[in-house]
Write a structure and sequence with these properties.
Length: 348
């Protein structure tokens, strides 16, 4: 599954928008007025966590495909989500508000974390922030059908080369995002990554207790509980000296190793405790794309060489900054990630 669509699509698979009446008034293939576009995005943003649905998502990135079963329930101000992989290694991710449980049944390993509500950290994607209009132009591209449901199609076209275009299919009756694509710029307009429901039920009865049963069945599992602390970037000795246009710092935490790395090291250590090196994670967003910048002490045993890589829409950049090692991961071009990594200066 592509990280980019995990962070956006599954950061609120819900694009539960209510913006369709205004959308229907726009002509296919024409740019929306600023007021109409802002109204659509504000409704998307406001309703992003209100949907109850379950379905099967199919992801495609870098020539490979995978599928996952998804549940999303909301009752009052409480949110429950579950993501279960249907291909490859078994994995389940269950979230109740800020509590996230990741289980690997084959390895009998569970990672339990409390995550602050920073963008891109949810199990199933967050809404589109209305401020994306500062960096993207919104255009309606007509209508289509996804998973047997009528959908309206929106194109978010970036105003510069620092980010990718995105095309969204929104369910006409509810606004739920049924399909999403991440695209390169014109004129080629290549699809880098896509995700779509192959089947979906909308408006289902919430069953949060059923979802949480899997999270509590950890008998015989090794349970890891990585710690994290919300911090201010400047208090950790870093300042943004050269801001990248459109990308704003949305939060910063000091944490142990990333949970996926904790899990892999725990498995490879065969029963020994995973190394708990402190890592600073700063999250940057333009309202649609998200970039996580991880900063840790440079260790020549682990940090072999600087590199740039990408899979689908997800880029990864690593580089050394004196005594520190930077890893930037996000759904933006590698050149953008490198700019974000180099935008910080050490003040102490």
């Amino acid at each position: 599954m592509g990280r980019a669509l995990m962070q956006r699509w599954l950061p609120s698979l819900t694009l539960v928008c209510l913006f369709l009446p205004a959308l229907g008034q726009a002509q296919s293939g024409t740019a929306a007025s600023t007021d109409d576009a802002r109204a659509w995005l504000q409704r998307i943003h406001a309703a992003a966590n209100s949907g109850n649905y379950r379905g099967t998502l199919v992801f495609s990135a870098g020539g490979s495909m995978s599928s996952s079963r998804v549940w999303h329930y909301c009752v009052g101000d409480q949110t429950w989500e579950k993501l279960e992989s249907l291909d490859g290694r078994q994995r389940q991710v269950i979230r109740h508000n800020d509590d996230v449980h990741t289980l690997w049944p084959q390895s009998r390993l569970a990672v339990v974390e409390k995550r602050d509500a920073l963008p891109g950290w949810q199990v199933t994607p967050q809404s589109v922030d209305p401020r994306v209009l500062e960096q993207y132009r919104v255009q309606r591209e007509g209508a289509s059908r996804v998973a047997g449901r009528e959908a309206d199609v929106l194109l978010l076209e970036p105003l510069d080369g620092l980010r990718y275009a995105q095309r969204l299919w929104a369910d006409r009756s509810t606004g739920l995002m049924l399909r999403a694509e991440v695209l390169t710029a014109e004129p080629n307009r290549t699809v880098l990554e896509s995700a779509a429901f192959s089947e979906v039920e909308i408006g289902v009865k919430p069953q949060p207790k059923v979802l949480m049963q899997a999270a509590t069945r950890t008998e015989g599992y090794r349970v890891l509980r990585p710690r994290q602390q919300r911090v201010a970037l400047q208090d950790e000795g870093w300042v943004i000296a050269r801001a990248v246009p459109g990308f704003k710092l949305t939060g910063c935490v000091k944490r142990e190793l990333d949970s996926s790395r904790v899990a892999s090291e725990a498995v490879s250590n065969a029963g020994h405790e995973a190394v708990a090196d402190p890592v600073l994670q700063a999250v940057f967003s333009d309202g649609l794309a998200h970039v996580s910048l991880f900063i840790e002490a440079y260790d020549p045993r682990r940090h072999k060489r600087e590199m740039q890589a990408h899979l689908g829409a997800t880029s990864t950049v690593t580089l050394r900054r004196q005594d520190h090692w930077f890893t930037a991961v996000g759904d933006a071009p590698a050149a953008t990630l490198k700019q974000i990594a180099e935008s910080l200066d050490r003040r102490r």
